Amino acid sequence: MENKISVISIIVEEMEATSIINSILHDFGQYIVGRMGLPYREKNISIICVVVDAPPNITSSLSGKLGMIKGVKAKSITAKQNS
């Protein structure tokens, strides 16, 4: 299966979930191009954006595992084609 570039956006509403998130991201580390995390202290949430270069089923699995964590929302968007 051909790799696609995707961005997974993660909103963390329960800070206790961060260790689980980091563990999952570590497990998928070979596909991660980069990540950026922004703590939004005034709202008591964190926003994480992860760029992946992976087959669609891997991106879907990563996003799904993240989204199943209590207090975490995750959505992905995938480029139509790679350049």
Give a brief description.
This protein is of the alpha+beta class and 83 residues long.
Question: What would your notes on this structure say?
Answer:
This protein has 83 residues and is of the alpha+beta class. The chain is 27% helix and 42% strand. The protein contains 2 helices and 4 strands. The protein has helices at 18-27, 56-67, and strands spanning 4-12, 32-40, 45-54, 72-78. A hairpin with a 4-residue loop joins β2 (32-40) and β3. The longest helix is centred in the C-terminal third of the chain and has 12 residues, at 56-67. The protein starts with a strand and ends in a 5-residue tail after the last strand. The model has no long low-confidence stretch (mean pLDDT 95).
Q: Please indicate the percent range of residues in DSSP E strands (runs of 2 or more).
A: 35-45%
Largest sheet: 4 strands, antiparallel
Unreliable stretches covering 5 or more consecutive residues: none
Helical run tally: 2
For the CA atoms, what is the radius of gyration? Answer: 13 Å
Q: Round the mean pLDDT to the nearest integer and report it.
A: 95
Number of strands: 4
* Sequence of secondary-structure elements: EHEEHE
Structural class: alpha+beta
Residues in helices, as a percent range: 25-40%
How would you describe the shape? elongated
User: How many angstroms does the end-to-end distance come to?
Assistant: 17 Å
Placed side by side, the strands forming the largest sheet appear as 2-3-1-4
